[in-house]
Amino acid sequence: MSAPFSTTAPLRLALVEDDPELRQLYSDYLCRQPELSCVLLAGSAESFFDQLPDLLQAPQVVLLDVGLPGRSGLDALPRLKQLLPDTEVVMHTVFDDPDRIYQALCRGASGYVLKNQPLADLKAAVLEVARGGAPMSRAVARQVLAHFKPTPTAQAGLLSEREQQVLEGMVDGLGDKQVATRLGLSPDTVRTHVKNIYRKLQVSSRAELLSRHAKGQL
Amino acid sequence: MSAPFSTTAPLRLALVEDDPELRQLYSDYLCRQPELSCVLLAGSAESFFDQLPDLLQAPQVVLLDVGLPGRSGLDALPRLKQLLPDTEVVMHTVFDDPDRIYQALCRGASGYVLKNQPLADLKAAVLEVARGGAPMSRAVARQVLAHFKPTPTAQAGLLSEREQQVLEGMVDGLGDKQVATRLGLSPDTVRTHVKNIYRKLQVSSRAELLSRHAKGQL
DNA sequence: CTCTGCCTACCGCATTTGAGTGATGCCGGC
DNA sequence: GCCGGCATCACTCAAATGCGGTAGGCAGAG
C-alpha cells in the first residue's frame, strides 16, 4: 500500500541509547515503521550533539536514554532543549525513581517511558508525543500525580495540627516571628514547634525542609 | 466458578454525570462492557453520596464530572476520597483549564479525561486507572507537564552562570558552606553570590527564595 | 493516678545568615 | 583608557536560626 491517506511525512526520530544491542533492537524496530524515520542514532549524548549539525532537518522527536554512565541523559536534556526548542524529548529508561522523573520533566522532557515495555508501546509513545501528548508509563504517571497531592502520607498524623500550621507558614517563606504573628503566638513557641517539626521530619534546616517540600518528598 | 476466562470480577464503577442524556449514553456503553459493572449512577454529588450507603461494596472507580453547576465535582472530591480512600477517581469533563486540572489532581483524582473523546477511550481510562495507571487526555497531560517547568523565563539572562549554580545549590537545600564545597569556592564567595541573587530576584531570605521557587514564581 | 503527648513559653549558646563595605582581577563596550 | 558587570575573597555587625534544656497546664490512655 502506498499510504494514500498519509498527510504527513514520516516523523524524524533520533535515538540515543548507550547499549549497542538495545540500540540496534530499537532502531531496527522503529525504523521499520512507515510513520517513522530514524535520522540519528547515537550511543551517547556527545555523539548525539556531534551528529546534529550533519542533519538537514532537526529531529522532531528524541528518544533519550538516561544512560548508565552517571546521568548523562538528564544532563544533556537542557542543552538539547536549548539547541532544539521545538523538538519533543521522550525519556526512555529503566529508572522510575521520583527524583529522576522529576528532574527529567523539569528539564523539558515531554514523555517518560520505562524500558520493560513492548516495542509497540515505544512506537506509540513517539507518535503520541509528536501529536502533542505526553506519553508516560503507568508507574511514571502515578509518580507525577503523586507530586500534586500535598502530603498524603508523612505529615498526616505525624505532625500535630499546630505543627501543620507552623509548617504552612514556613512553606510560605515566613520567618519565625512572622509565623508567630500570623498564628498569634510567641516567637519562642514557634521556635519550639519548628524544632519538633525538624525532628519529626528528619531535617535540620529550613532550607532542607523547603527543598524537600518542593520536591513533594515531605 | 464459572467465568473461566476472567480472573477478576467485573470492575465496580460509579458514574456521576449531571446531563441525563450523556449519563444515559455513557452508562449504556460502559455497562455493556463485560469488564465493567456500573454499581452507581448519579446526576449530582449529593445523589452520589446518598446512594453510597446502599452499596454492598464500594465502587473501585468513580467517573466524576466537573459539572456545570459551579464546580461540584471538584468540591465533592475531597469528601469522596475521605469516604473511599481506595477508590480511584477519574475526572471527566469538557474543561481543560490548568487551574481546574491542578485542583483536581491536588484533591486526589488519578485520571482526567476530556469529554470529546471516543467512548472507547473512556472505557480504556477506567480500566487503566484500575490497573494503577493515570489516564489523561493529551491536552491534560501536557498541562500537567507544563506545571513542572518552573523557570523558563525570568531567571534566564538575569542571573549569571555562577549565580545559577549557586541558586541550584540553595534550591537543593544546602547551606552556604555546602554550596561552596560543591562548587569548589570560598564560602565568602558563595555568600556574595547569594546576596546578589537576593537583590536580583527581590527576595530577602532563603526561605522566601525557596518558597517562590517552589511556586514557580521565580 | 501516672505517663505520655501537645501547646505554650523561656533561657542560653554556637552557628548561619543577611547586609554592608572593600579589594583584586578579568573582560568587553564605548 | 575608563567604566560597568562579573567572579573571587575578606572583614565586620546584627539578626535569625539550630539545638539543648526546663517547665507549667491540659487532655487522653493505661
UniProtKB/TrEMBL annotation, chains A, B:
SUPFAM superfamilies assigned to the protein according to its UniProt record, in alphabetical order: C-terminal effector domain of the bipartite response regulators, CheY-like
Matching Gene3D superfamilies: 3.40.50.2300
Highest taxon of source: Bacteria
Keyword Transcription regulation part of the UniProt annotation: yes
4-aspartylphosphate, modified sites: 65
Signal peptide boundaries: none
One Pfam family hit: GerE
Keyword list, A-Z: DNA-binding, Phosphoprotein, Transcription, Transcription regulation
Claim: DNA-binding is one of the keywords in the record: yes
Limits of the HTH luxR-type domain: 152-217
Domain Response regulatory: 12-130
PANTHER family: TRANSCRIPTIONAL REGULATORY PROTEIN NARL-RELATED (PTHR43214:SF24), TWO-COMPONENT RESPONSE REGULATOR (PTHR43214)
Protein name, per record: Response regulator transcription factor
Species whose genome carries this gene: Hymenobacter mellowenesis
